[in-house]
Amino acid sequence: MLLSESIGIRRESLLDQLMQQLVDPVRYDWMDDAVTFTRCGHTLSERTAQACLERRLPCPIGEPHEASPYITNLITRKLIQLFRNADTSSLSLRGRLTSFPLYLGDAGTAIPFIPVGIKTEGCALGTFYSYQEGRQTSQWIGKVGEATGLLRNDPRSIRTRVRSDMNLDTIKEKIACDCYAILGMGCYDSPRTCLSRQPIIDRFTTDHLLAQDRVELGIQESLRIMSRMFEGYHDFAQAYTELQGERILLIEYIRREHRPPEQLYTPEGIIVPLTGLIELIAAGRIIGDTDLLGGTGKNAGFVWIKNDRGVTTSARTVKIDPGYAFQILLTEGERSSRNALYNTLHRLGHHERWLDDPRDTQIANNDLEVNILWKDLAQAQRNRLVTVLATSLKILTAEDIRFIFFRDGAFQRTRDEQIPPTIAELYATKMEEWLVHQQRIYREELAGHQAAIVQDPVQSFHDLMLEKERLLQSIQGTLQASQREIAAERLAREQMAISEQRARAEAEIQLQAKRESQIEAEASRVENERLRQQLLEAENALSQVLAVSRDIPGSPQPASSKEAAAPSQKEGRNTSPIVSKGGKAPIIQKGQFEGLETYAFGKAKWETYFGDIGEEPPLPPDIHEILAGRCPFDSKKTVRETHMLVLVPATVGGVPLTLNLLGELLKKPKGGGRVTQYHDDVWQAIFDQYGAVPCQESHWVLMSRDVLPGTRSKSFRDQCAILAGFGDFRVPTLLEAAVCIFMEHVATGNRLYGDNPWTYTRCVEECKGYQTGIGGFGAGGLHVSSVRYGDECSGLALLWKFRH
Asked: Measured between alpha carbons, how far is 216 from 159 in angstroms, rounded to an integer?
């Protein structure tokens, strides 16, 4: 062996050993907040040490012994800082990956995960667990994978194929978690993860729709991706930052500025630095994570970092839920990807979904308005992003990429719990191609970075020894800074007290306003009830007068049924494009609803499933002939076969019907109705604009059970032109479409406008310049989103509103 090779091996071994000493033994991450227990001398992260003291847990290193007070370890912190700035490509990726736990706590094993609660947010099936680790108990969340269709050509039974597909998706998410843990160079946190075989149904998931669907297929258990809970975690959906003196949500800052913020407001109203977000965005780009933050910011978050006096000094980014990583290939039948950069590079899908600059980065599947734009990044942000890209491209060699997906056969646990070699090979190949694209896109930036990075991390270690003296000399400056922090803490407490006083005053004002509003609403209700009673008494009196007049000879008699029918036609009742037999409308009969009890969703069904809706408006007198007529777009079927007849009430239980109220009602229907919901991945801007808009009047609608043939893959203008040839049929509103689709499911279990194939109908409303749409109804719920281009999923439903 050459001397240079021997030195290189020893150097790599030294660096690996040094790396292990700089990683927290509990959190498996850099100890950039390193502290040392004064009694035992063990070093670990401040968050771990603080948790040991607060919970009275033993020191996690060595034999169990009592944790003691701790002091800051400046040398370890500085070492980690140098490693971050150094070229770490020579470190063993294989060794770091194999140090992560793979399988833990299968059901039925000696130390299993114990379910303690159900995951309520999001559309994925998940359960909270506790796990005994020595003398400590940790909290985890376990999520079931989704069947993505990668194994659709598997010749085995549908049960085996779906279970294998779910487990493949879970393994893929575990790979993504490991990649995030490595590629961020310790700049952000990611939870400890593992795989675990668990039952689909436990005592918390018995009523979950997705769990019931899986069990009906015969799938009793599957792999779950288990993630250890972060104490003090907050997602970015509720994070606030500052823009030109205005306090705004973090996701709105990105929507306006197209770059991540560098500061956050603490609960006390103090601005502190936010670290690690731009590095997380770079790592997400490397592994093709198209939903890195999500349109609402719920796929990542942060923890507050406090000093030894409890003062919040910064916020540190945390990445969770990488379920949409590795969007770098198309499955069979897909014409475009969720990955906007992939579509841009391969010219797939509509050009409105392409990126103007390939250096821009997508962070949400369904909201490209929050894309990170290269031109809007600050220079310091660009430098940090390129640093992560450069280090990742050096670490991820072809051999290491294959190891990531094959893991020396560790993922081939059973035939149903594996990533098949053909799929692993496909992902490895596509990953290599994806990284080649990144090198080409950032060629100039990477060349500039290469000239500036530190070439030898061992030399940096020697430089550290020289800097030790300077660190000791800076202790005096640290003490002065501590005094300033104490003053800042005192000021923060005073500001917090003022804020609390202001909040109490505002709460009292809001409470008084709410009381006044309740009084006004009660007075209005009483007045409306009085007027309704007067109207009923007047109608009863008129009926008695008419009854008496019929018995008086020579008194005027009511008009004939034919004459009575004429005024309604003159008053402009809708003229049906479906012509009834003989061209005449029959007389309105008291039993006109007879024969429609099971077909129509009217007052009786509303009250069975949800509550009182008030008076039911009448149906057209020729409703039976309308339903028996030929369908206007399918002459082989009747209108009854191709449409649904639904009553859209103005109120339910005395409360005006809105999209928001409908969502709440669907969570707990009565009388055996099916539980359902809006899909978690809705465009929130639509509900912000239309969610509280009430239905103006109760009315019947006749809506097609599918989109009008010939309207898919067309613009909204072209779809409306086609619709114009169908008489009184028109485009549905969001509320009408949602009510019709949901009521069909509540009563029968059918999911119209579903996800196999994906089907949306455009609606009348616009949101931020885009036409709204509704559909894609699956086990996770009904999607409400924008339809921005004429893809094959988007068509147009027919809706006929009956006026009275």
From this structure: 9
Reading the block at residue 730, the tokens are 């028109």
Tell which residue, 196, 191, 172, 171, has the closest CA to residue 181: 191
Helix, strand or coil, per DSSP, at residue 758: strand
Residues paired with residue 70 on neighbouring β-strands, in sequence order? 37
* Residue 509 CA to its chain's centroid (Å): 35
In eight-state DSSP terms, residue 678 is: B
Q: How far apart are CA 248 and CA 265, in angstroms?
A: 10
How many CB atoms neighbour CB 545 within 10 A?
9
Distance between CA atoms of residues 175 and 182, nearest Å: 11
- Give the pairing of strands 193-199 and 221-228: antiparallel
CA-based end-to-end distance of the chain: 94
> Amino acid identity of 610?
F
Cβ neighbors of 368 (< 8 A, separation 6 or more) are 340, 353, 362
* CA distances, 681 to each of 145, 662, 753, 786 (Å): 17, 17, 16, 12
- Of 804, 542, 799, which Cα lies nearest the Cα of 699? 804
SS3 of residue 16 by DSSP: helix
**Which residue in the block uniquely carries the two structure tokens 């009292």?**
508
Residue 224 to residue 201: CA distance in whole angstroms: 13
Residue 279 to residue 285: CA distance in whole angstroms: 10
pLDDT tens digits, 455-479: 444 444 444 444 444 444 444 444 5
Structure tokens, 176: 């993504």
Residue that is written with structure tokens 């600059």 in the block: 357
Helix (H) or strand (E) holding 304: strand 300-306
Q: Return the number of other C-beta atoms located less than 10 Å from residue 440's C-beta.
A: 11
Instruction: Give per-residue pLDDT as tens, 361-414.
Output: 999 988 889 999 999 999 989 998 998 999 889 889 999 999 999 988 888 888
Buried b (16+ CB within 10 A) or exposed e, 506-516: eeeeeeeeeee
For residue range 718-730, what is the model confidence (pLDDT) as tens digits? Answer: 888 888 888 888 9
Two structure tokens written together for 359: 């250096």
- Please give the structure tokens belonging to residue 513: 């306003």
* Residues forming beta bridges with residue 271, ordered by sequence position: 265
Give Cα 690 distance to the centre of its chain. Answer: 20
Which strands, in side-by-side order, build the sheet including 300-306? 234-235, 300-306, 312-319, 271-275, 263-265
> Nearest 5°: CA angle at 281, between 15 and 231?
75
Give 776's DSSP letter: E
Q: What is the DSSP letter of 366?
A: S
- Please indicate, yes or no, whether the overall pTM of this predicted structure exceeds 0.85: no
| Radius of gyration for the alpha carbons in the chain, expressed in angstroms and rounded | 32
Q: Kind of pairing, strands 312-319 and 271-275? A: parallel
The Cα–Cα gap between 562 and 546 comes to 20
Q: Is the dihedral of CA 156, 157, 159, 162 positive or negative?
A: positive
